[in-house]
């Protein structure tokens, strides 16, 4: 068993890896003001960015689904790693050697399972790449050359070759310290009939498949010889690292340009990705042996940010199968806010073949001259019918109208309805517009009858102040994994008292120097909302705001009694302060308002006690109550007159 990672090393890892650098490996981040960054949340579906990152504080928080935490929490959540695996992974990125409490530096056997599998793939990719230069791999080099790819292209994409023997890679990885169990679990090896591990890939051209961070998590292997009885392409099986529905080949190379240009080009194969990139279309990506579907869309949406100028372009062969694939893409089109287009290559050529035949310019033209997906879908339907005859017109209308009716943007829907009328040769375009409108209305009504979850699908946002981490997420903030559980008591954010308390706690977490030392004298009873009381207690247990150390926020989060309070602390630490000039004057106003409301509440309580004493109270008791009331009233007046100076 691995020992506990040394606390100093954990802290060094947290400090060494900036949270914005880690998060930007998975999604596009933009300026959100106040030093924060924003993007589409990777933990739930949303239309507008409610996910915020605070580089200065090293925290992230989603105001839609209430997920939050630091760099370690983010990596744990998004890659489903244990705490130890996450620290080991980040330590490797930062070049930090970890120590364990039981002594010694990180031996291989102490690494987490995922880290070990990633390391195995890293070694395998290097092994395959080196084998591409061997005499046996001549057939692989010839294949690449026949597709227009030389040594430089192979090196850029990490293309390699798996030797034809039974256990070349297996023996190589054993020599690196990997166990047979790890090799089989990784998908790099499989059990033979005799029960011993043998190489899964033999005598094939190898493409390393990387995740969005650039780590090799699988391989795609193409057969090269006629005596290979396996499929043309053989991919890594489903493993703890590799799930084909969650992977886009080339995403590690394309992600920066996709985010920069707000354009993604989806092609069908590894060589198509290579051809596009070499032709200057550096936003090309491909699925890995599966249809483009919902999980692939989520990856792209986080990079495209769903801005109105974004484009997703699908390239398909011009044959019937390619057209069917294009029309299937239409079904998922409106999960993008981006403009979706289709590029159908001439003569049934894929981008790789097109580049060979007509050069790089032809590939670029193919992408630039793409057709809007709605138009392609409508024209494909109309082309199947004899629209010069009334019967053909009617049949085409009934098949094409539902496609137009599914367009969510009403103005675009109207334009395509008019265009459909023209394609059908129907002079009365209003008739087609009305038919499309009728179908759209029926679809909308069916959706409304489907319940609140359907009606609110896609709504999200980050109101200011954000929703409480302690409140139940509404139906529009549910994650794909199921309903969001209630995470604590709700907060009445319309209450001036709650807003002021929230603002003061934000200052205490984000700018502790502005509220020190006065805040440390505030009691828990000065906060009316239960979640805020818990945050106040955590601040106190972390040592208070006075002389807050560099790891102050980490200490406060660690002092939280549970995940609900920890989420609230993260939310308040990331949420923007409700004022342009955050200074001592503004902080003093919040301190005074919270204290004044607490004093006024106590005045009301004492006045109630005075009434309850009745007409014949004990003189000594009466004097004590009256004295307390007088002191409170004088203090309230002083707070109103002198402000923070009276604290």
TrEMBL record:
Signal peptide: none annotated. A zinc finger (CHC2-type) spans 41-65. Residues 262-346 form the Toprim domain. Binds 1 zinc ion per monomer. Residues 455-474 have a biased composition (Low complexity). It is an enzyme of class 2 (transferase). Keywords: DNA replication, DNA-binding, DNA-directed RNA polymerase, Magnesium, Metal-binding, Nucleotidyltransferase, Primosome, Transcription, Transferase, Zinc, Zinc-finger. PROSITE patterns: TOPRIM (PS50880). Contains an N-terminal zinc-binding domain, a central core domain that contains the primase activity, and a C-terminal DnaB-binding domain. Belongs to the DnaG primase family. RNA polymerase that catalyzes the synthesis of short RNA molecules used as primers for DNA polymerase during DNA replication. PANTHER family: DNA PRIMASE (PTHR30313). This is DNA primase.
